[in-house]
Amino acid sequence: MPEGPSIRILKEEAQQFAGQKIIEVSGNSAIDIERLQGKTILSFKTWGKHFLICFDDFTVKIHLLMFGTYRINEQKETKPRLSMIFSNGELNFYTCSVKILEGDINLYYDFSEDVMNEKWDPKKAKQSLDKNPDEMICDAILDQNIFSGVGNIIKNEVLYRCKIHPESLVGKIPQKDLKKIINECSVYSFEFLDWKKNNELKKHWLAYAKKVCLRCDLPIHKKKTGKRSRRSFFCTNCQKLHK
Predict the structure, then answer these.
(1) Is-annotated flag, keyword Cell inner membrane (predicted)?
(2) Is the pLDDT of residue 74 over 80?
(3) pTM of the complete model
(4) 46 and 16 in one domain?
(5) 3-state secondary structure the chain
């Protein structure tokens, strides 16, 4: 599943179509596709892993899910979920969720929850964590209503940086470490964005998909953790378990 930084890249790449009129629309989405015909795109926005195509009175929400893809100014052989043709190119989405949100987009999203948005509010994230002291930090970091845009790669890398075991309980983690985790979720997301743009993301991984801890020269453990049962990679020597 693409994480927030990858959706930011999609937004940048699609920006050429902002202000453009859709001259042809097609796809096998369940939405009323014809509603988009002749409409002008006002802007593109992102909220975490959601890509938002904003029109004057509604927004099309694209979620790429686990296997979704997109193509700009080219097509795949498979039929798109949504295809929009403009005078200066085309934008195609495949194997994804497409929904229409009526009215003001701000009624649907709190942009202060997005770790890459200028409105990101780390204090609000801390308040949300404090309300769930018995939750494992590996689950809390993946809560999109707290850390919108953070996915499993970012989760693993942030916890390794902060030397916190993924099965630690939120309420047992020292306050200074919890604040560091919150900060790193945003910091790492922007680093992720830069590395991905430069096609060098994987070479910066310290824990994700690794076999040996770079700090301790001991085996990295791989385990599905928390109620979300997502893969965690961690060192039991330098990542402290708080329970």
Answers:
(1) no
(2) yes
(3) 0.94
(4) yes
(5) CCCHHHHHHHHHHHHHHCCCECCEEECCCCCCHHHHCCCECCEEEEECCEEEEECCCEEEEEECCCCCEEEECCCCCCCCCEEEEECCEEEEEECCEEEEEECCHHHCCCHHHECCCCCCCHHHHHHHHHCCCCCEHHHHCCCCCCCECCCHHHHHHHHHHCCECCCCEHHHCCHHHHHHHHHHHHHHHHHHHHHHHCCCCHHHCCCCCCCECCCCCCECEEEEECCCCEEEEECCCCCECCC
